[in-house]
Amino acid sequence: xxxxxxxxxxxxxxxxxxxxxxxxxxxxxxxxxxxxxxxxxxxxxxxxxxxxxxxxxxxxxxxxxxxxxxxxxxxxxxxxxxxxxxxxxxxxxxxxxxxxxxxxxxxxxxxxxxxxxxxxxxxxxxxxx
Length: 129
Fold this sequence. Notes:
By secondary structure, this protein is mainly beta. Helices cover 3% and strands 47% of the residues. The radius of gyration is 13 Å and the shape is globular.
């Protein structure tokens, strides 16, 4: 079983950048496909991005393509989400998640909340206008 801890959230102005980190412990993160989700108050948790075990494939929701970049450093047991050109609509709690399943399953698999077996506690991102 893996434990996940997110960090790097905060308050930033529109157009600014943040880098979120998801540090894993208990098991090496290289055993998992990893995802980032976000949840705004009163809304359902939504998919943001995912990366396969080896980092060979990445997936993004359309609203963040070209602005966010997911990456992983298996040696550091950490997954990152670089967020640039932030917008007020990006404001949410951001969660990382680990999936112990199929590596090459496609966007519909990785973008589904139920795919993931383990979740972090979240980090808040607030983008002011």
